[in-house]
Structure formats: structure tokens, C-alpha cells
Haloacid dehalogenase-like hydrolase domain-containing protein 2
Amino acid sequence: MAARRALKAVLVDLNGTLHIEDAAVPGAQEALKRLRGTSVMVRFVTNTTKESKQDLLERLRKLEFEISEDEIFTSLTAARSLVEQKQVRPMLLVDDRALPDFKGIQTNDPNAVVIGLAPEHFHYQVLNQAFRLLLDGAPLIAIHKARYYKRKDGLALGPGPFVTALEYATDTPATVVGKPETTFFLEALRSTGCSPEEAVMIGDGNTERQTRRKSALLPTSLARASRRPWITSCSTCCEPLWQRNREQLETRSGWVPHRSAPGSLRADRVLPLFSCALIRKKGIELQPATKPR
């Protein structure tokens, strides 16, 4: 019988989970404090390419989140690492506020294309310049391929559609470095010293769907309720986590991970460590669980 592994680390998505632009998700600060009160290590992961890590940290601190810079792992960090590894001079299709994370990288006479979320640069002339570089053999590095992201005024197009357009036009596959790629999560976990089997990912609905589709490394859980408060779970990943960590979750929080439907886990039972508040904001009241008979 395989030895049970303890839950040692939690990766928490940022935008859409702790905050949406300049507004904190109601109850998120208290939720994070509760999580900090356990022995679990916490790291924060994000695909944001709209701002540098330092700007992001300042934003989070203004929202009263107690987070240190070394706890944040961004897709910009992953992109810079790949650029340095390949020793290329990138055409940077990123927001101007993200440029500090590429300080020192040579961009004159570019021979590669790095693309993130850059609404101000997504116009014909710039995209056509990237198109021509790719036709000449330049590699295409996508910071991530999210279809959309959350803003205060609703959903907005992410970089994914623009990456796909360049791939299609040039028949050049992109190397993707951000969530939900397996390498991204491994790098994020590196500082914890934990294996994927000892960690769980907490994110919003889009994070959960992408991670489940692209990476089998981490069980994923919703930190907010969607229209249906169910998490479709992977039989080889999420179910073992539920079995392994049931006693820990019950002991630390008073909530029992509860098997609610075939192939699914209740969001309000999987996430007791994090908080009830993030789910309650959508109108789903949580009750202390009773042990399944």
C-alpha cells in the first residue's frame, strides 16, 4: 500500500480569485489569513502580463494582502527565463507596464517574438511585423494562451486568440510558458521543495478548466462558485488527493471533504482550508459537513 503524502503546499491564482483588477474579492484577505494559520506553504501564481511583478505586489498590498515578492511566480518570470535560455532578442508584445520584468534583455534587431496581453499593441502594423519575423524563422513564445480574463466591466479577450492567429498565419507553433503548462507549475513549486503530489491549485473556473485540460500534475479546486457548484475531478489526480488529505482538512478546519456526485467534488467541501467566503459571495451558504456514512 502506497504511503500517504501530506498536503504541504497550495498554489493560489491571483486575478479572479483574490482580486479583480483593483478590487479584492470579498472575504479574500481573511481567507488568506486562515490559510496562513496552517502549516501549508502558500505560493501565488499568475498569468498577468499587464504589469511587472513589483507593480502587482504593490497592488496586492494596497488591497491589504500580506504577500511577499518571493511568494509570487508569474508567467513573465517564466518567459524571461526562456528568452535567456534561448539567447534570443525578442520583439516584446507585452504591456508597457510589464517591461521592467525584461530589464537588461536585448531587443534591438529582434529574432524572436514574445507575446502576452498587450491591448495597446494588438493592431495590424505591429502584428504584421511579428508575422514577418515568424516567417523568417523566429521562434514564437507565448506567455500564455488564455482566451479571456476578468475585468471590472466584464470578460475581455486574452492573448490566446492573437497567439493562435499568428500560429495559423505562419504555421509556427508557439512555445507556451505560463499557466496551465506543466513546466510553469513545477517552477512555481520549486521554492517549496514539494512534489506535485503534495500540492493543490486553487483558482477560479477558468483556471480550473485550463489546468485540468493541460496538466495532470496538480489537483485543482474552485475558489468561487460557478453557475453549478461542482468541480469535475480527474480520477487519477483529484480523487487520490481527496482520500489522502481528508483527515487533514477535517482536523484543521472542521470541514469534511465530501463526495457529492459521481465524478465531482463539492467546491465548498474541497476548499475549507482557504475560505467559505469566496464561495458564499455567490450565494451558496456552507454548512458544517457530516461524515459520510
